[in-house]
Amino acid sequence: MKVYGYGTQSAEQDLSPVVFERQDPKDGEVAIKITHCGVCHSDLHQARNDWGNTMYPCVPGHEIVGVVTTVGKGVEKFKEGDRVGVGCMIDSCLDCPSCESGEENYCRGPKGCTLTYNGTKNPDGSNTYGGYSTDIVVREEFVLRVPEALDPASAGPIMCAGITVYAPMKHWNLEEGQTLGVAGIGGLGHMAVAIGKALGARVVAFTRSEDKREEILSMGADEVVISTDAEAMEQAAQSLDLLINTIPVPHDLEPYIQLMKPDSTIVVVGNMIKFPEFSPGPLVFNRISVAGSLIGGIEETQEVLDLCAKHQITPNVKMIEMDQVNEVFETLAAGNDGDFRHVIDIDKFRESARSLNGSATKVEAPSR
Ligand code: NDP
Ligand code: ZN
């Protein structure tokens, strides 16, 4: 099928229209007409090669919501017309200990899990293209049900931002009444505030932005601390049982280590580039762990979608058109100090895509 999208050919270029062929669904696969796709900070990191591993052309997007158009033979869970979603991965070996325990995101098979974009799929190893596009084809095990109680525009960010903060709360056993800290209140951070509250934690948000205070409190935070205010940070010393750190760039960890109670854990989900040096002394004296966490498994992603539907937790979303995505990237690169999550109206893009014909760059077919 002919698919229109937005992608880039190098780290230096803006995203622009592309056109490519996707294979029709094979046995066990589901074709999805995309209606919405969230813009995650990872899309920007990947498009600009911040992690040094980008394969071009890069068509980002892993907070995908759409409607099933056709299914391949043997598909049991989905049928034409179903409202569905796709998060950060579209395949894994399904046979290793990680996959068998529902942690496909940590697949130990020869290729690991296949990411929705910038992923390689067995057996040909070619690049995958994501949800900044009109259609996608995914094997049914990696397709999620979007609960009816969720507005489709809100569901996408739950499948990346939501699961990425929910999985560590589960893994590190965040208990009712414990204090959860969240550092960096953008797309991931604001979901962490709302989900942490739904799990019964006391939530303290650490932000640089005084302007966000009221909105963060309205999301359910018990307290907002301005992270650049040394005195306020000092007052919060040794108060947290768990800290989810979503800050996307290298930054000094020491002010955050100070916030931790003995035996607590800082979970890094944001910065994957480098941390400046920090002294391990306070970690040693208080048995504090610094850990990392990558999205979550499929079953757990379904669980967080259902949890958000049940508690009516929705991301704070600003709808945009596809050709505004470069502007949004600039906003994220500048620190996302305004809107929390942007979501692309792919239905609208589909309408205009037909007229792109000649101007869209034809790129090679992705593996999916
Ligand atoms: P956003 O840009 O929406 O939010 C990041 C927030 O961090 C900002 O709103 C801001 O919060 C704070 N921040 C931004 N720049 C700086 C800076 N220079 N110094 C200090 N604080 C800063 O990003 P997302 O929430 O979409 O993503 C966050 C990170 O998580 C990204 O690096 C992304 O790649 C990563 N990620 C990781 C995943 C995983 O599985 N581990 C999955 C998905 C994303 P404030 O204004 O409140 O200070
Ligand atoms: Zn993401």
Tell me what you see in this structure.
The structure is a single chain. By secondary structure, the chain is of the alpha/beta class. It has two domains: 205 residues, Quinone Oxidoreductase, Chain A, domain 1 (Alpha-Beta Complex), CATH 3.90.180; 132 residues, Rossmann fold (3-Layer(aba) Sandwich). Helices cover 26% and strands 25% of the residues. It contains eleven helices and 18 strands. Strands 3, 4, 5, 8, 9, 16 and 17 form a seven-stranded mixed β-sheet that branches. The model has no long low-confidence stretch (mean pLDDT 96). It binds NADPH dihydro-nicotinamide-adenine-dinucleotide phosphate and zinc ion (ZN).
List keywords for this structure.
368 residues; alpha/beta; Quinone Oxidoreductase, Chain A, domain 1; Rossmann fold; 2 domains; 6-stranded parallel β-sheet; 25% strand; binds NADPH dihydro-nicotinamide-adenine-dinucleotide phosphate; binds zinc ion
